[in-house]
Amino acid sequence: MSRIDTPRHPIALLLIDAQQSFRARPYWTDTDAPAWLAATNRLITGCAARGIPVVQVFHTDGPDTPDNPFAHASGLIRPIDGLAPFETALRIEKHRHSALVGTGLGVWLHEHGVQRLIVAGIRTEQCCETTTRHASDEGWQVDYVTEATLTFDMQTPAGDTLTAAQLRERTETVLAGRFAAIRSVDEVLAQASGASGTP
Hints:
It is a single chain. This protein is an alpha/beta fold. Helix content is 31%, strand content 21%. The strands form 2 sheets. Strands 1-4-3-2-5-6-9 form a 7-stranded mixed β-sheet, with helices on both faces. The protein has a two-stranded antiparallel sheet with strand order 7-8. The radius of gyration is 16 Å and the shape is globular. The N and C termini lie far apart (32 Å). The model has no long low-confidence stretch (mean pLDDT 94).
């Protein structure tokens, strides 16, 4: 875990697993990536302009060998290509689906007075959703920015295909009003402007 001195702010952006590792996975497709990158970069830039700290979360697991894209030996534990450079308030590595498990993130958030989290990253229905549920149960308010999350088609146990769009809709359905508010980039930045006093 690495950190910089960060002013207290009631909101933090969690950028989850936006790392090059995923481009080495067989299910990777560029279909939705450009729109996701555009939305994510706009969210990061907007948060930075409002003084909102950005927490960068990387996922690592498995053997530390070059053929494992989630190992340091692969060289892929780095920001995904196309992600705009930004200053991180905190950088952590997780080994579970929730960014709050075994990372010290919860302590850091409490120390910095964070009450609301903005969630973005990869994958929509896995680490982003799991972190959202966990954070909500721990007492944080969560804004889930679906357009700034990325996922891929999956096979159901019955052998049917759920498209990335269907997975995003399913995640919004199960989170909305229970674990998070579903917001667009524009909506979350407009709300953040009120908290920070930045237009």
